Amino acid sequence: MNAPSPSRRQLVLEPNDARRLSELSGQFHEHIKLIEQQLGVAIHSRGNHLRVEGSGLAVNAAINVLETLYAETGEREHLDAEAVHMLLATLEDGEVDGTEESDKPGSSLHTKRGAIKPRGENQRKYVEALLGNDISFGVGPAGTGKTWLAVAAAVHLLEKDEIRRIMLVRPAVEAGEKLGFLPGDLTEKINPYLRPLYDALYEMLGFERVGKLIEKQVIEIAPLAYMRGRTLNNAFIILDEGQNTTPEQMKMFLTRLGFGSKAVITGDITQVDLPRGQESGLAHALKVLHDVKGIHITRFTSRDVVRHRLVQVIVEAYEAHDKKEEGIKPGGRRTPRDARATDGQDEA
């Protein structure tokens, strides 16, 4: 089989703006290096004149990425590595069509700290689901923006007066540690587990405003146990770490939904901290509710990870290991019963 013929294209970026060119390149040329590594091209630059070398398709893809990213530098002060990563992931899925993310429906969520844009097609569909469905699930590995975008959607709707309160909930399950050894009552013990939710709110609304909204109970952050017996109207309710609920807890949570409310459940079914043998309420709900109209399930993969590049590699390595190990008993073969159980988990 013949190797792809080498190609070379020149690209002139206009306007010739030193700040924008620096943002495109990234610190220590990290953005350019990432594009070269992912697409298998070589990029040489002198000012706003770039030369891209590689196979024909890869060169065209690199030109597309460079032009799209340069356009973004005109809209924002800082171009981060996650923007480059997600654009490349979208390109690999064949979804780059020249349309700016900001031109697509449901492309941004507005908070006091500015617009938050989803990265890639999967995040964009997730945002559309958050705004358009009463119940949404965001399922996948850490670093895919499940919780961050859910909080952003809640703040967006609060600012538009479409909801009256935000409820952020987590199950009180210890991830290898014992809550009983921590000082304080249950609320004080659970607060460290709610820190990611606080951090997202602080970044979107500011520390002082979050404090005032919590005082007025416009924002409530609580362990899942506090939800029993309540019905919430005109609220945006987020259940984070949903994989650590039992089926009974998940049913209890889903039936708290009142009029004018939305519920979002996020989690990763590969990171269950429940006692061994206890079925995850998230995995169970995905099987029970997958055909229910009005409920949307967004499934993220390692391709959607927007943290450090190594996080994506680590997630993929664990996924490959789990696929190799699942259903295989030491010194034995996978039984039909094991196969059925594993296949059900895969569907979830």
Topology:
Elements: E1 6-12, H1 18-25, H2 30-39, E2 42-46, E3 49-55, H3 56-73, H4 81-92, E4 109-111, E5 114-116, H5 120-132, E6 135-139, H6 146-159, E7 165-170, H7 186-190, H8 195-205, H9 207-215, E8 219-223, E9 235-239, H10 247-254, E10 262-267, H11 281-289, E11 295-299, H12 309-325, H13 336-347
Parallel strand pairs: 6-10, 6-11, 7-8, 7-9, 9-10
Antiparallel strand pairs: 1-3, 2-3, 4-5
Helix pairs in contact: 1-3, 2-4, 5-6, 6-8, 8-9, 10-11
Care to describe what's here?
- By secondary structure, the chain is α/β, with parallel strands linked by helices.
- It folds into two domains: 6-98, Ribosomal Protein S8, Chain: A, domain 1 (2-Layer Sandwich), CATH 3.30.1370; 104-319, 3-Layer(aba) Sandwich (Rossmann fold), CATH 3.40.50.300.
- It is 42% helix and 16% strand.
- The chain has helices at residues 18-25, 30-39, 56-73, 81-92, 120-132, 146-159, 186-190, 195-205, 207-215, 247-254, 281-289, 309-325, 336-347; strands at residues 6-12, 42-46, 49-55, 109-111, 114-116, 135-139, 165-170, 219-223, 235-239, 262-267, 295-299.
- Strands 8-7-9-10-6-11 form a six-stranded parallel beta sheet, with helices on both faces. It has a three-stranded antiparallel beta sheet with strand order 1-3-2. The protein has a two-stranded antiparallel ribbon with strand order 4-5.
- Strand 4 and strand 5 (114-116) form a beta hairpin.
- It is globular.
- Residues 94-103, 174-179 and 329-348 have low confidence and may be disordered.
